[in-house]
Specification:
- The structure is a single chain.
- Helices cover 41% and strands 20% of the residues.
- The chain is of the alpha/beta class.
- It has two domains: 173 residues, Response regulator (Rossmann fold); 162 residues, Response regulator (Rossmann fold, 3-Layer(aba) Sandwich).
- A six-stranded parallel beta sheet has the order 2-1-3-4-5-11, sandwiched between helices. A six-stranded mixed beta sheet has the order 7-6-8-9-10-12, with helices on both faces.
- Helix 7 links the parallel strand 6 and strand 7.
- Helix 3 crosses helix 11, helix 6 packs parallel to helix 7 and helix 6 runs antiparallel to helix 12.
């Protein structure tokens, strides 16, 4: 099932909204007469920024959707980070402006977020993709949102393992030091091998390169081209703009590709001709739900995990490839989905 209505709102329009929100300090919220309190919600991106068409982009959509929900009375703003040094500074900007909720996006913002939460008990903090509480006792104002990335990775692998004509797949990934990236990659490998014992999965992680973390599409494109030269006919891009470079290479070479984090057929229409699906984390749903809990007074600190059982992850529609994928291939993907839900199948990824 495609989502034609969603595509009417272009990515450019959405990013324009994000830029206006960041520049102006927040859009106008609900009418004052309908809200006894307006909740100020700030989001800090990692270096991938809102233009990554996946991770940061969709996390911010959770803030946007909370703002659009008149029952929540939310006023949202995003600040983009250009380097790791920006993380504490950007969080501090929202603290200084007395925001009620601060959402931080990305594993690498963990230390700065935990420190800020401990220093500012009156503010609620929500970390996306991090719950690394080193003292094992998180502050009472801090929530970590985690996702079972190995599950959508596994499902994407089950699909790709059946569709490859060369028995060679490629994965162009972000930083290996970031657990969610590894979860996606290992899940994908195991899913592909579960249906095709002959498959080879060529894999490369982006070097720990400072400012270009998750934001090096040229490098990502070159790695995908190398894999195509080694026989890969499908590439999985796992890592913000870096992974997006691999998708561009697939489009230009007439190969198939798989997106990550969101349905990139919607968020990145420039490469939709190669996208057979995307391995999704429902980031917008998770972020909006966490914000709503704060507003409703039901905020619970600690860790909240999203997986296939609570619809926190999934595989995006096949869109224009739907008619090209056989019923047998689809059936095996559906079987894998059911097995993951009832526990009869595991991804093989334990950490």
């Amino acid at each position: 099932m495609t989502k034609p209505a969603a595509r009417l709102l272009s990515l450019g329009a959405i990013l324009f909204l994000a830029t206006v929100v960041a520049a102006c300090g927040g859009t106008s919220g609900p009418a004052a007469s309908s809200c006894s309190k307006t909740w100020k919600v700030g989001l800090v991106t990692d270096v991938g920024k809102l233009s990554d068409k996946s991770f940061n982009f969709d996390s911010y959509q959770g803030v946007v959707k909370a703002q659009q929900d008149s029952s929540l009375c939310v006023q949202g703003r995003a600040i983009e980070s250009s380097s790791e040094d920006d993380y504490p500074k950007n969080i501090g900007l929202f603290v200084d402006q007395k925001y009620d909720v601060i959402v931080t996006v990305g594993f690498k913002l963990g230390d700065a977020t935990i420190a800020a939460a401990k220093a500012n008990p009156g503010i609620k903090f929500i970390m996306v993709d991090n719950a690394d509480f080193t003292d094992k006792t998180p502050p009472s104002n801090l929530l970590g949102l985690l996702f079972k990335e190995d599950q959508p990775g596994y499902l994407a692998g089950v699909l790709a393992g059946q569709l490859t004509k060369t028995n060679t797949l490629g994965v162009v990934a972000g930083l290996q030091s970031v657990p969610p990236v590894v979860h996606y990659v290992e899940g994908f490998k195991n899913g592909a091998k579960s249906v095709n014992s002959a498959v080879k999965v060529l894999t490369i992680y982006q070097p720990e390169s400072g400012a270009k973390d998750f934001n090096d599409p040229d490098w990502g494109k070159q790695q995908a081209l190398t894999f195509f030269g080694q026989g890969a006919d499908i590439v999985f891009g796992v890592g913000g703009n870096t992974g997006n470079g691999a998708l561009v290479a697939a489009k230009e070479q007439g190969k198939k590709c798989i997106g990550v984090d969101v349905d990139q057929y919607i968020s990145y229409p420039e490469v939709d001709s190669c996208l057979i699906t995307s391995a999704e984390k429902h980031l917008d749903v998770a972020v909006k739900a966490a914000i709503a809990d704060v507003v409703h007074g039901s905020f619970t600190p600690g860790v909240k995990t999203f997986d296939i059982k609570n619809d926190g992850i999934g595989l995006a529609p096949y869109h224009q490839f739907d008619s090209q994928i056989s019923s047998d291939v689809k059936a095996k993907v559906t079987q894998a989905e059911s097995g993951l839900k009832n526990g009869s199948i595991t991804t093989g990824v334990t950490s």
